[in-house]
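B., you asked whether I could sanity-check this one before it goes into the benchmark set. Here's the sequence:
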Amino acid sequence: MRRHRWLAQILITLISIGVLPQTRAQDQAPPGFGGSQVPSYGLDPSMFHGGQAPLYYQSWPGTNPYMGAGQQLSNEHGLWEYENLSDLKGRRRYRLRAEYVRSRTERGRDRIGNPNAPTYKQEIIPVLQAAGGTGGGGGQANLSSYADELAGTTGHGSFNLFDPVSGGEIEQPTLNGVRLTLEGENLDGSGFEVWGLWANDDHTDFNARDYVHPSRGGDPGAVLFFLDPTNATFGMNPAQDPTGTPDPNEVFQRELLNLRGIPLDDGSFVQIGNTLAGGASAVYDLDFRIATHLEMYGTGLRWKGFKIMERGNFIIRPMGGIRLNVFRDTFSFYGRDSGLLYDGQTTGTTPPLPDVKIHSIPNGYDDNQDGIIDNAGLIEDSLGGQGGGNNANNTTATFTTAVNDFNLTFPITSILKNQVRSYLAGPEVGLNYLIGEGKAFRLGGSTVVGLLANHQRINLSGDNIFVTTRPADLNPQTPDNATPNVFASRHSNTSVSPLLEQEIFVEGPVLAYVPLLRRSPLLRKANLRASYTYTWIGELTRAADSIYWQGNPSMDLYPQIQVDRSTWRANTWNFGISWAW
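And here's what the prediction gave me:
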């Protein structure tokens, strides 16, 4: 077959002529681009509206149709890094922290009782001084010398005789709890933080029985036995009692205790110039207990901004957010008193001194060798140059029921409970600082200030708060009302509380170097973290301090809510584990 080579050459020439214009068209800019040489990648510009390509269809630094929905360009230690924000997998770095919280918080600052009412010592010293030596007998020291010792005017120092309790004597609350924190960080370190906190203290008790000699108060049931009117042994000659029945006088000397008291407004206050005079103290010789309880909740959201300062590895960022804190603060009191008066007389021939309960000077010695240390109802110590000491024969004391027109059953039990719930919420701003960003070991902290709205709800309730040596102050029980002396009140208000919080932390991959723990993949990749936080909140209502102590139910006087705000501080240590991914 004859081949026509000239035909092949003609076909190649024609194909070349047809393809060339199309190739050149790809090198030309679409109309309207000001002469910009933008490749069309084989697309006909006429396909665009009006023959114009959209503005986003340009070369770098614009975004072409094949890029993600967003981008982030940042400089990390001199290197430019590009992040595609539409790629959720690489959008942020996250950290989760789980921490054990141990916090020591502020105690109530005030004395438990009415600040204008006298203490028990202040109340009875004039009574003892007026009685002079008339109550002494059998070699017993006179009452005026005892009053001088009680007042501390002899140079020996004063001693407790039903003294009130101050807030500083109650054990400082220690809270234990947990804190969870989730952080999300962009490549430049900015991001967010969500945290939650719960902490709770064990009931912090003050029990006045813990401060008496261990040989005393071991058998309170014996006192209750003789106070029971159905047991007609009280006041009888022990020789006539059933066989084995103890001497009630000895039981009272051993089992009635010098505990504590609460000064009260009993309705006798009078204004003298700028001073209130009057009032009396409720004293308790069987039980005196105070308990406080604090529970905290909290949560918040914070945002960290871009770096405002960077010096080597030290970085400072601004931060801001909102927080919510809830405090449940509870104060409770429980007391029991025998209702007996015992003024140190050795015979019952004279009426008892009003409101007086005598206890020997608590020196921890059995001065009169009667087998009872620091007797109730006797002054066994050698005072005023008279008898006492080992030669004293002070083995008899007189115990008399206070005037009781209502046939009350003793002992009298007094209770009171005050609970304050504080809800604080508001904005906070501050600075976050860090040393060693992106390093294995990090050191940093934050300083935050805030202004929080503080809504408080207070509930107060109780029974039988009165001057315990005066049972006539109580309302009598009736068949229709078995608890005529109970009381309850509520109060709520809103105020503003400033906030200051300072945190310092350190964390690093310590667990990866512990032989046993590093075998766990979960712990090997975790950081061990320790931090200290100081928290200061102003104008916070405390349960122990927000009580107006008054008591005389017969005059319709019961304890009332008296809002008292003060500064609250907490020193908190956190220990936990942090995971990053």
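One thing to flag: The first strand starts at residue 71 and ends at 76. Otherwise nothing jumped out at me.
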